[in-house]
Amino acid sequence: MSETRSSNVYVPRDEAFSTVKSVTFSVNLVSSVLHALLPSLETAIIDTDLGFPYFTAIDSLFNEGVNLPPLSNKNGFLRNLLPRLALKRKKLFILDYHDLLLPYVKKVREVKGTTLYGSRTLFFLTQEGTLRPLAIELTRPPMNGKPQWREVYTPTWNATGCWLWRLAKAHVLAHDSGYHQLVSHWLRTHCATEPYIIAANRQLSVIHPIFRLMHPHFRYTMEINALAREALINADGIIEASFSPAKGMAVEDPTAPHGLKLTIEDYPFANDGLILWDAIKQWVTDYVKHYYPDSALVESDKELQAWWTEIRTVGHADKKDEPWWPKLKTVDDLVGILTTMIWVTSGHHSAVNFGQYDFAGYFPNRPTIARTNMPTEEPNDEELKFFLTKPEVVLLKCFPSQIQATKVMAVLDVLSTHSPEEEYIGAAIEGVWADNPVIKAAFERFSGKLKELEGVIDARNANRNLNNRSGAGVVPYELLKPFSVPGVTSMGVPNSISI
Asked: What positions does the domain Lipoxygenase occupy (predicted)?
């Protein structure tokens, strides 16, 4: 899953970071952060697989403590709803990494200090609008002459079952962390944008109106991707060494706001994201219709058609004949394509990137790798006795090692940081647009809608009926607030994928 290459990845000069941006994020910065944090560990720890001896040792990595929410009460939240009825009412959800991970279990387990399962996790949507885990299934395929092993874990109130449930959750979180970093983040934002940028530079002139519209959203992406290939996703890089390798959340409904009805009504990312999407779409519509008042101009624009053709046939040569590719024949086609691209580089990337330190910097909340098997997989008397007498130690051994945890913590801090010269969506008009009164007016309307979104998000976070973003100990959801100050803020939507 990693890439093996030379240490330097070429980036064209016009795609490279500015001086200030280079200071904010570079391979040298990542290295310096790691070297600042690791010396004491590296001199004291001969065994790089060494875990944490107790939970207070984890807290010593941080300047501030972490307040953990109290355990929920013992009342069953599914007892009055039959499973079949729960399915019909769309109350059951599944996080399914079974088929995705199962083929890699044997290979991953060959790496010292690393394990893997195929996993399925079942969730129930409560009356309060929050998801509660009901069951976790962990599966090991037949390997090394042993038959398939599979076990289901559920929340329980006896001591042994409680610790097994915690261990099972640690494994699933490691699966989800790896998927988040490599698929939701790297693949679906960073990688997906590269073919658009390359084709734009090859097929669109710099004075082409679509090039001018998209340029702010493509800025710095090639540079940051090159740096990621050098330091993060390369062979033996931080992702490989420290990480384990959703559709149907909305249905079309013309009577609902934005034309979609959410399956989970209190879904902060979707609710805030739909407002941002609508604002982007309206801005793109105003811009495109100014230059393409009718669809014939879209079809006859040779540069535009060559750009879209290269994206499909060269940038995605292995998928060029897939039926799901959008057509580019009408004004609406062009608006939809450009809106999607801008959304991915701005809102989507911000949502999956800038909250990483707050939610995963304290790694027991989001462990990135599991190092030991479940004690019930192949229990022997000695191991079972150790688990029953010291379950906390067994959990700590499953968590990332001290070296792994410290590296991940440092990298997530860097990735979650806004540059002092960050260019936020809708904040400043491009010089090439300012001289056109029609485009300038459209951009000002767009900017005004984004300022309104900030107020909407603040109001939602203050609404005590929205339990996924408001309440005691609940982190307010601010990842899609358009603007931010520099630093780690868990808010702010930059124009482009630049970190």
From this structure: 1-71, 86-499
Rounded distance between C-alpha atoms, residue 284 and residue 290, angstroms:
10
Catalytic annotation present for 185: yes
User: How many CB atoms are closer than 10 A to CB 207?
Assistant: 8
pLDDT at residue 36 above 90? no
HSE of 204, CA atoms in CB hemisphere, 13 A:
24
Dump pLDDT digits (tens) for 303-341: 999 999 999 999 999 999 999 999 999 999 999 999 999
The residue among 254, 215, 263, 277 whose CA lies nearest residue 431 is 215
Q: CA nearest 228: which of 415, 360, 369?
A: 415
Q: What DSSP string describes 14-79?
A: GGSPPHHHHHHS-HHHHHHHHHHHSHHHHHH-S-TT---SSHHHHHTTSSS--PPPPPP-S--SST
Angle at 216 between CA 212 and CA 217, to 5 degrees: 110
Tell me whether residue 353 is one of the annotated catalytic residues.
Answer: yes
Q: Phi and psi for 204 in degrees, rounded to 5?
A: -110, 135
Model confidence band, residue 75 (pLDDT cutoffs 50, 70, 90): very low
Distances (CA, A) of 469 to 278, 325, 338, 353: 22, 36, 30, 18
Mean pLDDT of 455-461: 97
Which residue among 175, 180, 190, 348 is the active-site one? 190
Q: What pLDDT digit, counting tens, does each position of 92-118 carry?
A: 899 999 999 999 999 999 999 999 999
- Among this protein's residues, is 190 annotated catalytic? yes
The CA distance from 275 to 281, in Å, is: 10
Which position among 353, 373, 468, 495 bears the catalytic label? 353
Of all residues in the chain, the percent with pLDDT exceeding 70 is: 77
Cα torsion 449, 451, 454, 459 to 10°: value is: -80
Would you call 499 a catalytic residue per the annotation? yes
Residues 144-191: pLDDT tens digits?
A: 999 999 999 999 989 999 999 999 999 999 999 999 998 999 889 999
Identified catalytic residue from 311, 349, 457, 495: 349
In 3-state terms, what secondary structure has residue 97? coil
Residue 456 identity: V
Do 235 and 4 contact (CB within 8 A), yes or no? yes
Cβ within 8 Å of residue 302, ≥6 positions away: none
Rounded mean pLDDT, 379-398: 94
pLDDT of residue 70 exceeding 90, the answer is no
CA distance 479 to 481: 6
What's CA 79's distance to the chain center, in Å?
34
433 touches 212 (CB < 8 A): yes
Does 442 score more than 70 pLDDT?
yes
Backbone angles phi, psi at 326, to 5 degrees: -65, 145
pLDDT for residue 238:
63
